[in-house]
């Protein structure tokens, strides 16, 4: 079987599936509360793909070369019976890795059902240990406790757990060391993510980005660290190990060191759009042809064609001062799934 390559010779290896555009937090860098309020036009229920539709498309993506699937959102654990979808996806022949990204608020209750359904890994987003900073960032005093309980439950259940931490200057820089220290030696890698100009409403300003080098210097002042070679080509996080054996930290530096050249990720939105870049302006609809009764072969051809035409490299263009994000709107992070 020949797998498609895009216009820049990149294969399709990863698929991120958003199962809902709704969330139980309002992180200011993703879903600012003043925009994502009660009147925000979230997707109507009838537009959202059923689990059977998601599984069918996921199978086709695997036939295009996808080896890894990550479930995301919005908040994926808000979707009813998510473990049922996990167990469907876990059966796909040729899929090597099935993971979930969550804010962790409902993870304590779901860790065991997700593991039993065949989930292997979970990435939990946690930007602050202090209740006050969490409240400022995502609107909830209680989120940290729930998320920490979720992390503990996931580890207890035997899932591999990583932490994603977005740092915004002047908001949670003071959480860098406490977060790193909390997970040092625990077998859980914290990955610091540069704050990105995702979506249209977070008021992104380059001055608010705390670059990975800055975070690394701060950590190195406390603990000697050494770079670790990537495990595979296209690994998004750059990893460093603590020289005292207390594990690793990672850095996702999409602003200061873009990695579009190796980007083999596609996104499937909750309403069935195939989106080929986190910063795309729109996606290619798969739901209508799916519901119109197209056969697998024809759907497969649509997916391959979209991938072959792909030429996205937004972060590289931004880095070179050439992105045109001011002119047209981008998809929202909570819609496309991060
Ligand atoms: N709700 C889940 C969560 O927070 O983990 C999954 C969806 S969320 C959109 C996926 C990831 O995107 C999270 O780790 C979040 O921190 C990250 N994210 C959202 N907006 C971002 C931004 N503007 N810059 C960098 N990362 C962002
Ligand atoms: Fe929700 Fe995740 Fe976005 Fe925060 S980052 S608002 S938890 S979707
Ligand atoms: Fe991939 Fe687009 Fe991000 Fe570049 S900007 S790494 S092409 S998702």
Explained architecture:
By secondary structure, the protein is of the alpha/beta class. It is built from 11 helices and 12 strands. The chain has one domain (14-336): Aldolase class I (TIM Barrel, Alpha-Beta Barrel), CATH 3.20.20. It has a 12-stranded mixed beta sheet. α3 (107-117) runs parallel beside α5 (143-156). It is globular and about 60 Å long. The two termini are 30 Å apart. The mean pLDDT is 96. S-adenosylmethionine is lined by residues 23, 29-30, 72-73, 75, 101-103, 125, 164, 166, 193, 195-196, 198, 202, 333-334, 337-338.
Question: Quick summary of this structure?
Answer:
This protein has 338 residues and is α/β, with parallel strands linked by helices.
What are its keywords?
11 helices; 338 residues; binds iron/sulfur cluster; single chain; binds S-adenosylmethionine; globular; TIM Barrel; alpha/beta
Would you list the SSEs in sequence order as H and E? EHEHEHEHHEHEHEEEEEEHHHH
Instruction: Please identify, by name, the CATH architecture.
Output: Alpha-Beta Barrel
Low-pLDDT sequence parts: none
Mean pLDDT level: 96
Cofactors, ions, other ligands: S-adenosylmethionine, iron/sulfur cluster
The largest sheet is:
12 strands, mixed
The coarse overall form would be globular
CATH superfamily label? Aldolase class I
Instruction: Count the DSSP helices.
Output: 11
Topology:
Elements: E1 14-18, H1 51-63, E2 68-72, H2 82-90, E3 97-102, H3 107-117, E4 121-125, H4 131-138, H5 143-156, E5 160-167, H6 176-183, E6 189-194, H7 212-222, E7 225-228, E8 238-242, E9 248-252, E10 265-268, E11 273-275, E12 284-285, H8 287-291, H9 296-309, H10 314-319, H11 333-336
Parallel strand pairs: 1-2, 1-10, 2-3, 3-4, 4-5, 5-6, 6-9
Antiparallel strand pairs: 7-8, 8-9, 10-11, 11-12
Helix pairs in contact: 1-2, 1-9, 2-3, 3-5
Bound molecules: S-adenosylmethionine and iron/sulfur cluster (2 copies).
S-adenosylmethionine (SAM) binds at residues 23, 29-30, 72-73, 75, 101-103, 125, 164, 166, 193, 195-196, 198, 202, 333-334, 337-338.
